[in-house]
């Protein structure tokens, strides 16, 4: 049996790979996700988007901090709240929007929708609408990577609600037994739908991976540099064959569980929301830092946003005018 | 719209009260919880949130969060817990948010709950109700759209209920709660807002009694859950085309009221079975087989089965729309059958 | 005992080699593993122990414990892992010791493996084989005796294989491994020692092609897995009684070779469907429905279904014995049907 | 969230409730289980018993140490290796044998068999042939006990193999969140069937319950007094409303995984078996202690064994000559 590693080495939160360009790149991704999600909100409330939309707004630093340490052939699995992960891993907004609208040009030809974006070209094994449903899949991709010796790592994103699912523990046990290059990223945004996580989660979250001998760390999920630095260490370690890790990211979703969840007072206060948005906004914190450290000017950041806005305009336009798949496609791709 | 036994409660003026199917279910639960302190409800976001479909809104305010209990996202764990609680003096009602998630509780339900009574030689009992949903058409994609009631119907030891109207929902829920066996209660997500007559008086509809939702002579439409509404819609279209359709609702797939199904088809000599689960190896296969066996010499053509198309439910609206049975489909199939012979 | 395509490999003298069904499965796995380094086997006690049924004995010695891998008792976990591995370049063969335990992997198989290809618009593939068992009669009681293949047969995106002879087992296993979809391979525990002809040459039997195991004119016995052996036994008894029975083995419940089933019944005009799962909402319902629909005007009486009795399988031998279909039961049912008309 | 309690108070291994009579009673139970299982072995090898038989020989101190702290209306759940638990909780050997032979006089009228002995009169919720399958049930019985205020506790017995099943973690989380009076008793007999537990179990076993905030202790499972003392503390604590606990008992099964598992050299050595049997036999250790402490004489213990032997003779005889259920019973009790 492996030893339990519980120590967390405190390092500076800026990592060697993150030169000024890398930081701007991360900023661009975070702003891109934020603006993408704003458009989703808009499409949804204008009844142009079918189904459900779970927005990632407020949590951008997690996906970007992690994915900025990954190679494009590394794997991720994602969740019902998955747009941010997919974009951070390299998905193009136009095909994302197309998928969200059920169009043929979407990543899944419209068959998956918001909760099932998948894309082999960016190593995206798929968003998953079963809470905890992808923990085995992510672990299996790490198994392949190790077996095939291709040096890839696999990242399993999940909300803290997935801590309730037994398959997570089964997967972590396997990962540690077989020393697989998988990083379990727990996005603790404080709520399982409409229930505070403290009502569903006994004991100590980090103790859970640690009980299986898995190196586990906790990081401020609103600080993209901290997330990036922690992820870089864990990813490097996994790539070097040193086994799995678990990263707990404290974060917050600004909006409802899904777009339709508008009256939230019965489970959380407006003050709480306001506090996170005004004091802990990942994009605000990061842009303040970039400006204070003279890595960018406010004007530069604004022009990046403007650039993204017009790219989003075009992407939305692309998706809105793209055709639906022909109904005859419905029986295609049931079997390979 | 009622079984013979139920006629009396349907007749009086009080019967004119209307509830939605969701309200009818909540009322059944509330009335039973007032009557029996052993009943507890547990599931994800059932308390203050009143479930994601808001079906249980207000129950936690009346009964407290000690009896309407939010759980972690641990379907297998809290189902197992509910089984143990049911064996030892409580009567839990377990909420599984989407029917697709029953895949996570198959061991607890099929290997444990269904078998405890038998394996113990009749000594332990599991008076448990599992409420869950079925039905597509909400653009929820493949993991939130399935109708998997065939799985449970296949397992001896379980009972499976599929209400199609607010009246039935309330009466069947009462029987489910009062039953000493594990009962799974499937609610079509698209029907929660459906309104119908629900008398204020206490009544229960026995499990295992089919209901003739509409009488007719030319063809029998056997339908379950929301497909009953589809069949009734098709029956109206058929009426305009001069065809008289009888709509039979088994109401429970197990126990199954074979006799009512078979007698109807003996009368009409034609049958279509409509269920929103996959037709292949699904509920339509059993119902069609029962009819084909019981009414063999009366049938003038094969029983027709209509179910979900045999594909994972796609997200894209124009694709999803062709996977589920519609009034038009049933109408055309029925008209074709009535013309042919 | 062979499909048309397979005839050639059956004819030569080499075909006289005998293997048990267990050996045939092992040989298929070993040959494919030699051919394709991407294949790995994982499951509980599959390595040195060679499974509890000893079916894989010796494979870990040949291929190493890196390719024949013992897992923790985590059916959902290692199935999920295998799905991810299948998507990313390996071809895992997963072993679920008893078919009853598939209840623990329904989410992984039905919500994940079955849907990945479709949900991704055809981009990701899941070339995975799940081997598991079915069948009662071993006095193993209710949680180790079920035949739950109907559950998987109901789910689009999965393929389901039920070999009935060593020859079929080897050829079907090869196709299952070479298939790019999740395939579940159900092995009857009571048949592992069954001997039969298995040619040494490489061959594969396509999935979805039924096999006429015995020709006859008076009645068609459609049977799956070990029930094929029961049907063949009954056919011999029937022969002595002057009745000529045709035995048809679908070999895969999905894809399903409807045509061969229907054509046989068109010829004989009588059919019994025999499957060891529960008859209710089970495989017999689908097969009977397909026949009743396809051969409606040829049938002179209803298709008869014979499956496990609708009870949890009891431990006590005299009780268990009456729950499973026997040659005698099939013989009597067939004789009754042939007399009646 | 609850705190993680990790401290283990070291107490004397003799507990206040265990006067001389109580010890003799425990000895009697342990010897009874051993001799019961010897008879099972004999019946099985003489082909008089159908199905499978998983013997508890070598592990007697666990079931007896625990159950001797329970009231008769307390609950237990058991496993495929369950005879010892059932007997320790109060089952009568004659009806046990009858069940093992599939007779109508058995606890389950022959319908359950060896792996499904259940008995409401002794609080036995049932043995379970699904590894980990009863963790939810045991937790639910504790839920009822707390809700109904009847002061009962529930004990969930399982082998270390069940640590692989996710539902155990889901159950422990629920138990700690709701402070339920349930004791999880992990019998680590070193093997999951034919695989050493170290090949299937990553990290630290006690860390697992502790991660959920559950008080967890480890005890020598061959020392019935130590098991009893630890159990007494945990059971008292649970009964007092202080919540769940986890007790890890190190033990060993002397025989095969089941009676038919006779060639075991490929997974464990004869020396290992010999060492446990000669040095760590729970009955031997306990009788040595009883004699050394003058709580019993060797002659007294021998006469107890002789008594049990003749009781077993009678019980086996009862079962062998008892009738099978009528085949018509097969459709009874599917539904209540
Ligand atoms: C197995 C399962 N159970 C329940 C649900 C319904 N559901 C969807 S999201 C969600 C809450 C998830 O919370 P968390 O994991 O914290 O993710 P978040 O939404 O906060 O990002 C639930 C209960 C589901 N999709 N899958
Ligand atoms: C879910 C499940 N998977 C596999 C099995 C087959 N099986 C029966 S006993 C056993 C080993 C159990 O090991 P452990 O829990 O340590 O108990 P022990 O036999 O050592 O007492 C296995 C794998 C099972 N019964 N249930
Ligand atoms: Mg959350
Ligand atoms: Mg063990």
Describe the protein in words.
The complex is a heterotetramer, with 2 copies of chain A (336 residues) and 2 copies of chain B (341 residues). Chain A has 336 residues and is α/β, with parallel strands linked by helices. Chain A contains 11 helices and 7 strands. Chain A has helices at residues 20-45, 60-67, 83-88, 93-100, 135-148, 166-177, 207-211, 224-239, 270-279, 282-292, 298-321; strands at 75-77, 154-159, 182-188, 191-192, 195-196, 215-220, 245-250. The longest helix of chain A has 26 residues, at 20-45. By secondary structure, chain B is an alpha/beta fold. Chain B has 2 domains: 18-199, Rossmann fold (3-Layer(aba) Sandwich), CATH 3.40.50; 211-337, 3-Layer(aba) Sandwich (Rossmann fold). Chain B is 37% helix and 19% strand. Chain B contains 12 helices and 14 strands. Chain B has helices at residues 7-10, 21-35, 59-63, 75-87, 106-119, 149-153, 166-178, 226-240, 258-268, 283-294, 317-321, 327-340, and strands spanning 18-20, 39-43, 68-70, 91-96, 129-134, 159-161, 183-188, 195-197, 211-214, 219-223, 245-249, 252-254, 271-278, 304-308. In chain B, helix 2 (21-35) packs parallel to helix 7 (166-178) and helix 4 (75-87) packs parallel to helix 5. The model of chain B is unreliable at 1-12 (pLDDT under 50). Chains B and C meet through helix 5, helix 6 and helix 10 of B and helix 5, helix 6 and helix 10 of C. Bound molecules: thiamine diphosphate (2 copies) and magnesium ion (2 copies). Residues 159-161, 189, 191-192 of chain A line the site of one magnesium ion (MG).
| Uncertain spans of chain B | 1-12
Terminal CA distance of chain B reads: 29 Å
Bound small molecules, which ones?
thiamine diphosphate, magnesium ion
Structural class determined from secondary elements of chain A: alpha/beta
The helix/strand order of chain A is: HHEHHHEHEEEHEHEHHH
The geometry of chain A reads as globular
Using the CA coordinates, give the radius of gyration of chain A.
19 Å
């Amino acid at each position: 049996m492996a030893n339990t590693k519980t120590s967390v080495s405190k390092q500076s939160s800026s990592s060697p790979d993150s030169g000024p360009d890398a930081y701007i790149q991360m900023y661009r991704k975070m702003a891109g996700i934020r603006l993408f999600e704003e458009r989703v909100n808009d499409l949804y409330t204008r009844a142009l988007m079918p189904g459900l939309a779970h927005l990632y707004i407020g949590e951008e630093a997690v996906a970007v901090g992690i994915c900025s340490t990954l190679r494009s052939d590394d794997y991720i699995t994602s969740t019902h709240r998955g747009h941010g992960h997919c974009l951070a891993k390299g998905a193009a907004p136009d095909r994302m929007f197309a998928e969200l609208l059920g169009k043929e040009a979407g990543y899944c030809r419209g068959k998956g929708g918001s909760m099932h974006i998948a894309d082999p070209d960016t190593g995206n094994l798929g968003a998953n609408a079963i809470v905890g449903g992808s923990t085995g899949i992510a672990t299996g991709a790490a198994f392949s990577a190790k077996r095939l010796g291709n040096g890839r790592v696999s990242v399993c994103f999940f909300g803290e609600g997935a801590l309730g699912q037994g398959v997570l523990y089964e997967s972590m046990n396997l990962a540690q037994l077989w020393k697989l290059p998988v990083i379990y990223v727990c996005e603790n945004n404080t709520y399982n739908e409409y229930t505070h996580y403290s009502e569903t989660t006994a004991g100590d979250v980090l103790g859970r991976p640690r009980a299986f001998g898995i190196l586990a760390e906790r990081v401020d999920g609103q600080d993209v540099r901290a997330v990036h630095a922690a992820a870089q260490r864990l990813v490097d370690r996994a790539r070097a064959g040193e086994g799995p890790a678990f990263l707990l990211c404290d974060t917050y979703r600004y909006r409802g569980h899904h777009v339709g969840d508008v009256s939230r007072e019965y489970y959380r206060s407006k003050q709480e929301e306001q506090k996170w948005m005004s004091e802990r906004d990942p994009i605000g914190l990061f842009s303040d830092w970039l400006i204070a450290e003279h890595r960018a000017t406010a004007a530069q950041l604004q022009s990046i946003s403007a650039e993204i806005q017009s790219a989003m305009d075009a992407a939305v336009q692309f998706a809105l005018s793209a055709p639906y798949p022909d109904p005859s496609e419905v029986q295609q791709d049931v079997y390979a | 719209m009622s079984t013979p036994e139920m006629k009396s409660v349907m007749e009086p003026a009080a019967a004119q009260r209307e509830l939605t199917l969701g309200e009818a279910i909540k009322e059944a639960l509330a009335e039973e919880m007032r009557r029996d302190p052993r009943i507890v409800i547990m599931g994800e976001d059932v308390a203050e949130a009143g479930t994601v479909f808001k079906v249980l809104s207000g129950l936690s305010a009346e009964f407290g969060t000690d009896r309407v209990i939010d759980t972690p996202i641990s379907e297998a764990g809290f189902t197992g817990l509910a089984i143990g609680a049911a064996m030892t003096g409580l009567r839990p009602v377990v909420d599984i948010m989407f029917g697709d998630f029953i895949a996570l509780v198959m061991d607890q339900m099929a290997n444990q709950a269904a078998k405890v009574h038998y394996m113990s030689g009749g000594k332990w009992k599991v008076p448990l109700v599992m409420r869950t949903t079925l039905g597509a058409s909400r653009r929820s994609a493949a993991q939130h759209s399935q109708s998997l009631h065939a799985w449970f119907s296949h397992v001896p030891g379980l009972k499976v209920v599929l209400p199609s109207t607010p009246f039935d929902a309330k009466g069947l829920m009462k029987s489910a709660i009062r039953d000493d066996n594990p009962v799974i209660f499937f609610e079509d997500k698209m029907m929660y807002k459906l309104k119908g007559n629900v008398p204020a008086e206490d009544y229960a509809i026995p499990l295992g009694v089919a209901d003739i939702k509409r009488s007719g002579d030319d063809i029998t439409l056997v339908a379950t859950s929301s497909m009953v509404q589809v069949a009734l819609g098709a029956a109206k279209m058929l009426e305009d085309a001069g065809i008289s359709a009888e709509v039979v609702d088994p109401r429970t797939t197990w126990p199954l009221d074979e006799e009512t199904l078979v007698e109807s088809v003996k009368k009409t000599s034609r049958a279509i079975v409509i269920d929103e689960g996959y037709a292949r190896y699904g509920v339509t296969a059993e119902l069609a087989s029962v009819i084909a066996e019981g009414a063999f010499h009366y049938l003038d053509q094969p029983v027709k089965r209509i179910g979900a198309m045999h594909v994972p439910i796609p997200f894209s609206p124009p694709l999803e729309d062709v996977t589920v049975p519609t009034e038009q489909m049933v109408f055309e199939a029925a008209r074709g059958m009535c013309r042919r012979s």
